[in-house]
Design brief:
about 500 residues; alpha+beta; 24 strands; six-stranded mixed β-sheet; Nucleotidyltransferase, domain 5; 3 domains
């Protein structure tokens, strides 16, 4: 392999766009990040103009290309936020701002969906639980409120699809993004005729689904002028940002798993079983290897909970936020397990796994006048971890983990130890946690170009691994606390639903 050739990657989230340039041997040459935010209004709407992504993408490209000649970049590949809805006209222009996964305007459509096709049937076809977060109800909302936009839509697409289209003029998606629309047949690996027919969705308005790693084309002259990439640069189909870290972690064997902690947190577990969770708790989706699938589950508010805490108790800390976060994690170890009798319910945005409850609310249980900010912070981290424990246990029931990796922008050593204690399992992390999604994209591109054989090639990108084993006495204490956490949720469920509905009156 030529060490003077590089793969440029970007990971386009809802709050930031991370970028990294890698050599073909897996060396990280440079990184960059552009921050932004969705437009959120009080009536639970969340949108984002796709120009935000393109501008961030171009800014990142030009920053990375300060380090290498543009002609040395062999390929570009991106991942992007999933489950939303972007309506693209025939001229390639957006007809409506991207409706993000976090937008709740389509809750009425969920009831309409269930009246036509049961949640059980949808889950059995797609492997995904019925929720407002996915694309189908958002498309239905758009059709009902803006029929002209629906009629004039050429394709409904996702974030990375738009970037690839801007780069090449070719419009396609991959199975990871298609799989989280509520319209993709998981086992038949195609758009579901049953679902499209039931909800009268025009199949022609959905993009072609191609394997991740497919070469879509080369950078156009117009795109080159915007972002600085050479016109000979290959553009390779990437994958959704929820799948990229799994590839980046190098998971390639049955029962290997990843717990990823960022704004949200989630598990992915490699499996060769097509069995879909009969409890309708977990999701199942495709993986890079067509013979493998992923079991998964998501906690909606992980880093979100930390950000809320920092905004509430340290509002003047914006310029020193990273240092403060590190300091709080260090101080957390001086607070006993159980946070001096304090429980945090991390349901600031409702919750997905295992309850799929839009009405779930956050809160501190057991708060007393002697609790300190350090107690509260540890309680926040423990609360998110207890929720992750419920996801972990649900997946374990379906298929036990053989090994577990830990990654994400919030993946600190303290949190790694805490999760190892809660799961009673050794956990492994590496030195590239913050850009693990970009690594997954680079490996995906390399597989498509014939440079790498599969996800296990991600080992070239990891230079140091850190192993954490559970502490026995901690395991026992957490084993007692998790049922209490679950009892608190159940006790507050009806109250939180009442409060949620009252706020909407």
């Amino acid at each position: 392999m030529d060490s003077k050739e590089y793969i440029l990657t970007q990971d386009i989230g809802i709050y930031s766009c991370k970028a990294a340039l890698f050599s073909l041997e897996g060396e990280t040459i440079c990184t960059n990040r552009v921050d932004y935010a969705p437009d959120v209004v009080p009536d639970d709407r969340s949108t984002q103009p796709p120009s935000t992504w393109w501008n961030a993408f171009c800014l990142n490209c030009r920053k990375l290309l300060e380090n290498v000649p543009a002609s040395s970049v062999k390929a570009v590949c991106v991942s992007g936020q999933m489950m939303g809805c972007l309506s693209l006209g025939r001229d390639g222009q957006p007809l409506y701002d991207h409706i993000t996964w976090d937008d709740k305007r389509d809750t009425d459509q969920i009831n309409r969906i269930q009246s036509l096709l049961s949640a059980d049937i949808i889950h059995s076809i797609t492997g995904v639980c019925l929720s407002y977060m996915f694309s189908l109800p958002k498309i239905m909302w758009l059709r009902e409120h803006f029929p002209d936009i629906y009629q004039n839509t050429w394709k409904f697409i996702q974030c990375k699809d738009y970037i690839n289209y801007r780069l090449t003029g070719v419009l396609a998606t991959d199975e990871s993004d298609a799989g989280f629309t509520l319209m993709y047949d998981l086992l038949r690996r195609r758009w579901s005729d049953t679902i499209l027919s039931a909800f009268e969705i025009d199949a022609a308005k959905l993009p072609e689904v191609v394997p991740s790693g497919t070469v879509l084309g080369k950078v156009t002259q117009a795109a080159s002028a915007d972002c600085g990439l050479d016109q000979d640069t290959l553009v390779v189909e990437g994958l959704g940002d929820g799948r990229a870290p799994t590839v980046g972690s190098g998971l390639s064997q049955k029962s290997q798993g990843l717990v990823y902690v960022s704004s949200t947190a989630w598990f992915s577990q490699v499996t060769d079983s097509v069995q879909i969770d009969r409890k309708r708790i977990l999701t199942k989706c495709t993986y890079t290897n067509p013979e493998l699938l992923l079991n998964g589950g998501t906690v909606l508010s992980a880093g979100y909970s930390i950000d809320w805490f920092l905004n509430a108790f340290y509002p003047a800390s914006q310029s020193t936020r990273l240092h403060l976060r590190q300091e709080l994690f260090a101080r957390m170890n001086h607070v006993p397990i159980g946070s001096n009798g304090l429980l945090f319910m991390p349901h600031l945005r409702g919750e997905r796994t295992p309850w799929w409850n839009n009405f779930a609310k956050g809160g501190f249980i057991g708060l007393a006048n002697y609790h300190t900010q350090d107690d509260l912070f540890r309680s926040v981290i423990e609360g998110v971890s207890f929720q992750l424990a419920l996801v972990y246990n649900s997946i374990q029931e379906l298929e036990p983990f053989s090994s577990l990796y830990f990654s994400g922008s919030q993946a600190t050593p303290q949190w790694q130890q805490l999760l190892s204690d809660i799961f009673d399992m050794e956990i492994v992390s590496s030195d590239i946690k913050s850009i693990i999604g970009c690594v997954g994209v680079a490996v995906t591109a390399g597989i498509g170009l014939g440079i790498y054989s599969g996800p296990s090639e991600a080992r070239h990108f990891h230079h140091n691994h850190f192993y954490t084993s559970p502490i026995k006495e901690n395991v026992e204490l957490y084993r007692e606390l998790i049922p209490v956490f679950e009892d608190c949720y159940n006790a507050l469920r009806d109250i939180n639903q009442y409060l949620s509905l009252m706020c909407r009156k």
